[in-house]
Amino acid sequence: MIIDIHTHLGDILYPNGGKLIDQKNIRKKIFFDVISLSETLLHTGISDAMDQLLYKKIYTLVTRASRARNATATLENMRQSMDAAGVDKSVCMPIPPYVIFDDLEKASRKDNGVIPFTGIDYTKDYDMGAALKSDVSKGAKGMKLHPIIQRAPLDNRKTFEAMEAFAPFRLPVLFHCGVSSYYLGAEQQQKENAALGEIVYAKNLVSNFPNVTFIAGHAGLFQYRDVMDLLGGFKNVMVDTSVQSPGHIRELLKVFGPERVMYASDWPYGSRKPAIKIVKKACRGDKSLEKQIFYENAASLLGD
Description:
This protein is of the alpha/beta class. The protein has helices at residues 34-40, 49-70, 75-85, 101-110, 128-137, 157-166, 185-191, 199-208, 224-231, 246-256, 272-283, 287-302, and strands at 3-7, 89-92, 114-116, 143-145, 173-176, 214-217, 237-240, 261-262. The strands form two sheets. A five-stranded parallel beta sheet has the order 4-5-6-7-8. Strand 7, helix 10 (246-256) and strand 8 form a beta-alpha-beta unit. Helix 10 (246-256) crosses helix 11 (272-283) and helix 11 (272-283) crosses helix 12 (287-302).
């Protein structure tokens, strides 16, 4: 059994992104991308400050690859990916206002392998408490926050208000963690503040809500050491393994413990098979540890 704790459906970068979910025969527009190269290397090039400098130099290539993958996030493609990799459940993350809970809830009724999370819409004033309660009643199994795409720090007023309303449901909250880019050219200047992915914002959030279980998405990307240093001491914080190398996962296991690390691919931004191979290599043949990371930790968290 494998639960992928961090995936996406729909176009998470533009309005009405949920319309992509039901489209058919969608294929990636570029044959090869730099993310595929990193996956072939099991992300072993993602290591330290030098690699962050390299990322800054090639970010356009990375961003183009990410956007090409984002455009393939259909339910048909997700199901094919799950079947090919042997993944049983995909926890799908909304990013309001582009992809919302209702989009994912509809997808879950068509494919019971989809587990929908809810989110908050920073672009409008509304009764967040009532909306979150409604989403949970319809099957939301957690909440997603993306400070960069949603252009809202994790420790801002509206986020804290949402946490106050969501905490009583005792469901997990997964937040994007780490500096990354999603737009190019003028759009990047207008829409994006990548620094909002810095780990210090996450520390402020998790420290203020000790009774909420948080999942640090991607374990911080290049900033995985900051995640270990700043978040490792909080028992209410878990990490997902997407985009991390086998060596990094072993380090994360030492800091967070095997009960707080979960498998993720970040599909379609990441591919499932390399992500599975990375976890297996990190576990070095320990089948009990594999079972925890691939299934048991997520199943316990989700009440599955």
